[in-house]
Amino acid sequence: MTQSWQIPMTHEARALFELLHRERKLLLGGDFRAISSILDEKRELAEAASDNTPAPDVLRRLNELLTTNQALLQAALAGTRDATRRIAALEQAAKHLTTYAQDGKKERLATELGSFARRA
């Protein structure tokens, strides 16, 4: 694979390349606030780079970075959704215990939070 610094790039393509690397680091670090702050810059650089069409090697490398970052973002979002569902399930379990009666029917028993759970 050709290293990115060996591929001749326009100023706009290089700036986009550097921004995508920065975005990747932010994704890996979980800094979503910082990621949202660079979206406008990313859009502007992508538009500027497309005005002056980069070489095929540059386009391929930029596409690889975009694809990688998109996969990282999708994984982070999936993890956030899973965590949200898990927290909701734990909160529900803290409120009610579902069990079965002797006749086989489901019963929901209210649970009372102890003083420890309220402080935590």
Structure description:
By secondary structure, this protein is mainly alpha-helical. The protein has one domain. Helices cover 69% and strands 8% of the residues. The chain contains 5 helices and 2 strands. The chain has a two-stranded antiparallel ribbon. Helix 1 runs antiparallel to helix 3 and helix 1 packs parallel to helix 4. The radius of gyration is 24 Å and the shape is rod-shaped. It starts with 10 loop residues before the first helix and ends with a helix. This is Flagellar protein FlgN.
What's a quick, concise take on this entry?
The chain is mainly α.
In total, the number of domains comes to 1
Query: On the 0-100 scale, what is the average pLDDT?
Result: 83
The computed structural class is mainly alpha
Q: What's the number of extended β-strand segments?
A: 2
- Proportion in β-strands: 5-15%
Low-confidence stretches are none
Walk across the major sheet and give the strand order: 1-2
Summarize the amount of helix as a percent range.
Answer: 55-70%
| Helix-strand pattern | HHHHEEH
The major beta sheet can be summarized as:
2 strands, antiparallel
How many H/I helical runs? 5
Outline, from the CA principal axes?
rod-shaped
Termini separation: 51 Å
Q: How big is the Rg?
A: 24 Å
Please name the defining characteristics of this protein:
5 helices
